[in-house]
Input
Amino acid sequence: MVEFNPMEQAVLKAMQELGAKNAESIKTADDIAKKCNRPKSMITNTLTSLVQRNAVKRVAREKSAGYYALQS
Output
């Protein structure tokens, strides 16, 4: 099992609570930052790390990228 640092765990938990589980229910970094009560820049960095570790999928869109968790 992959070990996640506390910030990665907080982001994954927030995504789960927001229902970001598939491509139809993606959430933006802003949504996740509000849920975690952390700065957007910190959330963006954490999401980038999670995408590289294949725990989160990034979906490019016109205005802002969306994210959803690949693990539950």
User: Anything to note?
Assistant: The first helix runs from residue 6 to 18. The chain has a mean pLDDT of 92. The chain has one domain: 6-69. Residues 12 and 35 are 11 Å apart (CA to CA).
